[in-house]
């Protein structure tokens, strides 16, 4: 664990979430986010839409899991509401919504998902927990640097994304047990840290640190 306390934001985050993530968001990513406010919101909107799509996909694939159906139905509705709210913020700031290529983060985690069931479902749920936890942590890191309106919105997202993290992890533990899930989480944490601390050529909400430029 390479997390270091950040008194300015850690009081917003559940201890369980901080312990779950293998590292803090690097300062270089925060600096890049503040330099690219329009790109941050555009990709944030895409992330909310993809999160809703993922929840719906799980509902269609695992119809025999009533707890999963209930949680994912609730999650999909919340993510779509967040998408609408982000688009509304963008309109208010004169930012046009457009499609942009995704970062390598989500696919980089999904590369390590097992191919066979039932472990495949458990891994997908763990990946969902990482995505929600990292989103929550990044909202919290950004809040001290944002204008009042955006900071207030992100503060509300910290609470909801924290619940989504708990839902994904709780479902995984329900279906596979805490010991097995802890072992899989540790494996995915190594890959997650590499994606967060590694260099990325393009800035995105879940990208790593900006690649060094040649001068």
From TrEMBL:
InterPro entries named among the record's database cross-references: Ferritin-like, Ferritin-like_SF, tRNA-Hydrxlase_MiaE
GO molecular function: tRNA 2-(methylsulfanyl)-N(6)-isopentenyladenosine(37) hydroxylase activity
UniProt-listed CDD domains: MiaE
Classification via Pfam families: MiaE
Matching SUPFAM superfamilies: Ferritin-like
Biological process, per Gene Ontology: tRNA modification
Protein name as annotated: tRNA-(Ms[2]io[6]A)-hydroxylase
Organism: Salinicola socius
């Amino acid at each position: 664990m390479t997390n270091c306390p950040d008194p300015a934001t850690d009081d917003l985050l559940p201890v369980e979430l901080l312990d779950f993530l293998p590292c803090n968001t690097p300062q270089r990513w925060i600096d890049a986010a503040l330099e690219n406010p329009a790109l941050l919101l555009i990709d944030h909107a895409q992330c909310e839409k993809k999160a809703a799509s993922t929840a719906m996909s799980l509902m269609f694939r695992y119809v025999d899991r009533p707890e999963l159906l209930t949680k994912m139905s609730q999650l999909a509705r919340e993510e779509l509401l967040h998408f609408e709210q982000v688009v509304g913020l963008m309109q208010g700031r004169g930012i046009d919504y457009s499609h942009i290529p995704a970062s390598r983060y989500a696919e980089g985690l999904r590369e390590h998902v097992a191919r066979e069931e039932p472990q495949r479902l458990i891994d997908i749920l763990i990946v969902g927990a990482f995505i929600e936890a990292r989103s929550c942590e990044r909202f919290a890191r950004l809040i001290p640097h944002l204008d009042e309106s955006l900071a207030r919105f992100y503060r509300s997202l910290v609470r909801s994304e924290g619940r989504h993290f708990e839902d994904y992890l709780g479902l995984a533990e329900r279906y596979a047990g805490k010991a097995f899930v802890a072992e899989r989480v540790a494996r995915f944490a190594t890959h997650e840290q590499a994606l967060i601390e590694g260099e990325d050529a393009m800035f995105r909400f879940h990208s790593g640190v900006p690649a060094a430029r040649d001068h």
